[in-house]
Sequence to fold (250 residues):
Amino acid sequence: MKGVKPLILAGIVAASAAVHANDLDKVIDKSSEINKSAAQSQTKIDKIADSMQGRLQQFKALNKEIDGLTVYNAQLTKQLNNQIAEMDALNESMDQVSVIERQITPLMMRMITGLDQFVALDVPFLTEERSKRIASLKEMMDRADITSSEKFRRLLEAYQVEVDYGRTIEAYTALLDVDGQEREVDFLRIGRLELIYLTRDGKKAGSWDKETKSFVELPDSAISQISKGLRIARKQLAPDMLTLPVHAAE
Fold:
């Protein structure tokens, strides 16, 4: 019997060890399942966190875009209000256009008449050119294809040309009745102060007399100065002092 007890004890120990080994395997398996489940849960958590971070960034971007749109809309509102104000002003101006049209046309007609009378009474230089300019203005006033603003602009240009005549020196060639014979002469215009002619052969000279409204002959001693003045006016000679007869107004 003594020999049997050790055998039974060994069997019990072996059986107990087998039970513990089996339990340990179950624990290990269970632990593996838990770890696997934890890894899957962590993966889900990471995906959710990434999704939340992306949505947060999207939310911030949308808020920034909304702020920009708010500023843009406010600016558009200001521009729209300004455009409405401009439209109101334009509508008011358009209501006055017909009134202005009725007033400006008679004004331009009076200006042309005044310019025509001025040229007729002025020193007779560039007579043909100036007469054609006035005739063109009169013809322009009858045309319907030219706006009133363009007519007024051209009229002001004609006035400016006449103003410029008073402060420039000019030489040009034209025909003139000299001693009952039409001859080609060189004219020297010094502003509106003097209009002098010199025949092409350089033998006769004369100047316009505002009192008699005619040309009077100048002495031969003035011819050299007149020739010099013609060369200066044509930019063939540098500006210099001239000694010329002047018909001063009384």
